[in-house]
Amino acid sequence: MTGPAMLARAAALRKSKLEAASRSSGETLFLYGSQTGNAMEVAKSLNAEAATHGIASRVLALDEKPLHKIPGTTKAAVFVVSSTGDGDPPENCERFHNALKRRTHAADLLAGVQFTVLGLGDSNYTTYMGVPRVFTSRLPELGAKRFYKNCEADEVDGLEDVIDKWKEGLWDALKAAVSEGANPPSVAPLPNGTANPPPASKESKLVGVPPLQKSRIKLIWQGAETIRTHGKLSSATNGTVTSLENGNPTIEYSAAHPFSAEVTAAEYMTASWSDRRVIHLEVDIARTGASYKPGDSLGVLPENRPELVDGLLERLGADGGRVFSVAAVDDVGTGQGDGSADVAGGARLLGHVGWPCTLREALLRHCDVTAVARKGLLRVLAEYCADSAERTELLMLSSRGGRDAYKVQIQEVRPSLLEILKRFPSCKPDLAHLLDSLPPLVARMYSVTCNANDAPGRVQVAFSVVKEQTGDGRVFHGVCTSWLERRLGLDPKTQRQFVANPSARVSVPVFLKSGGDFRLPEGLTAPLLMIGPGTGVAPFRGFLQQRRERLQAGGEAGPAWLFFGCRKEDEDFLYEKDLRKFETDGTLTKLVTAFSRAGDAKVYVQHKLSEHAEKLASLIQHGKAHVFICGDGVNMARDVHAALVKVLVDGAQMAEGDATALLNNMVKEKRYVRDIWS
């Protein structure tokens, strides 16, 4: 029987089994929305731990389980959800999140479903817990019943300790929720301890080894004709990007359906002698019929380094040219797979890989093999070590007791998957289990830096080529920005501008994403305060191009201030000519610059804000100014927010609490909007 025929037969068998199961009691699910991998790791760990408490369950990304498929198939659900940016849903739960917010659903859509929500967030962001709180409010509005207390875990306090405390009463409550006719009991904490302890005496001394996250899938190896049958094009062998979608105005492009955009221009904006590299990039989107506004973002789907992938395939002893499809392993009951990649409700496992495809393409374009290895992955790798000492070492790194070693050896050193496998040579992981344990290689988002009428049929972005020193002195290169630099053939000393070649066009897979509330106000009268150090200035170039266009149409305009910061004026003053021209022609009322390495004292944009406290406080308090911040969300956004509070305290003689309340109210009024990244 051929591969496709086996899949079809197995799918029918599985469908009948799942329908029978859902009629009896329904599934218990751990559903996650994760951008950086934290929520995914937590959900997979909870799913593995559930089995040690006698609870049969599955783990899925939220977009693998559509909202309308939950009624009738799900008895209890644990939602593990984070936000990305400044309150946006992660890529793998965007469709579910949008469906959940829709107000046209029946009030009893989720009647019979019991739930709890574990939200992951960072209180440095103004829209802290933005997405998790949509879940906590909307689920009961649609008839779902909470079976256990919701939890909000803040990265500022440390996620692990908060989640461990929340878990103490989860399992008793979940057992009651999935028992027919039972009501949730009063919360009784479970004793601390780890199920599935390693058998060896040396290993038994390890503290808090997590349960093994079992593989949800198995691989069905097929012939190359399978790709042709499914209409999927691939040119993974030469590292170029090819897409079926080369321009169709009727298609809505997304990370799952990108557009292959031809590069039309690119150049460095930083000095040749600088160790910092920032590139201005322009691509052609004319054939898509897509439109955008300043404030929107361009998503780029990157590739891992081909030599890294080839080395990984060699280390795994795998043929990268083999084509595979995915089948589900029945981890709820017998542990035997039945050949279907669909679980209850039509979820498609390993959907981010877009199988059928070659193993090399999966590792090149769809799996992140350079991300900081999660503890769940290390636990999986330990399972496949023939050498007991190597197994113990990996178990220790994955354990609660090995937290310090994990921080030093994994988080700070940032070894790639290949480097980890070379360190543990006896580890021979199962390919299906490995693919199911690796995080997706997600799109990188870059702020659009132009107004559509100033670049017809084109879109422009700016990005820093990421290069960071690791804990052991090596250099970590950002996946997407390094890939783009190589694709463009740029070198900061020998090739500073992209050279187009009609016989060898360079394209990259992209899609546009709305900036939401990160938009210029409709009129011209409201004062504007824009703060964008480094590449954070990118969207404000587009804002000012749009403002200039509106000014040319006539009308009274309020003041517009831009605060920009960089190292030195002659090193990395991005878009200097454009910004100075905006000030000269009146588009920009005042350009305030901060150079952090121009003298003995480091000067940042927050220092410059303080210098203009009285004027800025008046614009914010009395002029109803709109405040926009773009850039790093880890330190800069927090520091600038604190500086704005101080501006109001010093410039308007407000109490600190009142100043904070005013800024919080501006967030609600959408007059204080941030586009930040971590």
UniProtKB/TrEMBL annotation:
<protein>
    <recommendedName>
        <fullName>Methionine synthase reductase</fullName>
        <ecNumber>1.16.1.8</ecNumber>
    </recommendedName>
</protein>
<keyword id="KW-0288">FMN</keyword>
<dbReference type="GO" id="GO:0009086">
    <property type="term" value="P:methionine biosynthetic process"/>
</dbReference>
<dbReference type="Pfam" id="PF00175">
    <property type="entry name" value="NAD_binding_1"/>
</dbReference>
<dbReference type="InterPro" id="IPR017938">
    <property type="entry name" value="Riboflavin_synthase-like_b-brl"/>
</dbReference>
<dbReference type="GO" id="GO:0030586">
    <property type="term" value="F:[methionine synthase] reductase (NADPH) activity"/>
</dbReference>
<dbReference type="GO" id="GO:0050660">
    <property type="term" value="F:flavin adenine dinucleotide binding"/>
</dbReference>
<dbReference type="GO" id="GO:0005829">
    <property type="term" value="C:cytosol"/>
</dbReference>
<keyword id="KW-0285">Flavoprotein</keyword>
<dbReference type="InterPro" id="IPR001709">
    <property type="entry name" value="Flavoprot_Pyr_Nucl_cyt_Rdtase"/>
</dbReference>
<feature type="region of interest" description="Disordered">
    <location>
        <begin position="182"/>
        <end position="206"/>
    </location>
</feature>
<dbReference type="Pfam" id="PF00667">
    <property type="entry name" value="FAD_binding_1"/>
</dbReference>
<dbReference type="InterPro" id="IPR001094">
    <property type="entry name" value="Flavdoxin-like"/>
</dbReference>
<dbReference type="InterPro" id="IPR017927">
    <property type="entry name" value="FAD-bd_FR_type"/>
</dbReference>
<keyword id="KW-0486">Methionine biosynthesis</keyword>
<feature type="domain" description="FAD-binding FR-type">
    <location>
        <begin position="256"/>
        <end position="521"/>
    </location>
</feature>
<feature type="domain" description="Flavodoxin-like">
    <location>
        <begin position="28"/>
        <end position="171"/>
    </location>
</feature>
<keyword id="KW-0560">Oxidoreductase</keyword>
<dbReference type="InterPro" id="IPR039261">
    <property type="entry name" value="FNR_nucleotide-bd"/>
</dbReference>
<dbReference type="InterPro" id="IPR003097">
    <property type="entry name" value="CysJ-like_FAD-binding"/>
</dbReference>
<dbReference type="GO" id="GO:0050667">
    <property type="term" value="P:homocysteine metabolic process"/>
</dbReference>
<dbReference type="InterPro" id="IPR029039">
    <property type="entry name" value="Flavoprotein-like_sf"/>
</dbReference>
<keyword id="KW-0521">NADP</keyword>
<dbReference type="Pfam" id="PF00258">
    <property type="entry name" value="Flavodoxin_1"/>
</dbReference>
<keyword id="KW-0274">FAD</keyword>
<dbReference type="GO" id="GO:0010181">
    <property type="term" value="F:FMN binding"/>
</dbReference>
<keyword id="KW-0028">Amino-acid biosynthesis</keyword>
<dbReference type="InterPro" id="IPR008254">
    <property type="entry name" value="Flavodoxin/NO_synth"/>
</dbReference>
<dbReference type="InterPro" id="IPR023173">
    <property type="entry name" value="NADPH_Cyt_P450_Rdtase_alpha"/>
</dbReference>
<dbReference type="InterPro" id="IPR001433">
    <property type="entry name" value="OxRdtase_FAD/NAD-bd"/>
</dbReference>
<keyword id="KW-0949">S-adenosyl-L-methionine</keyword>
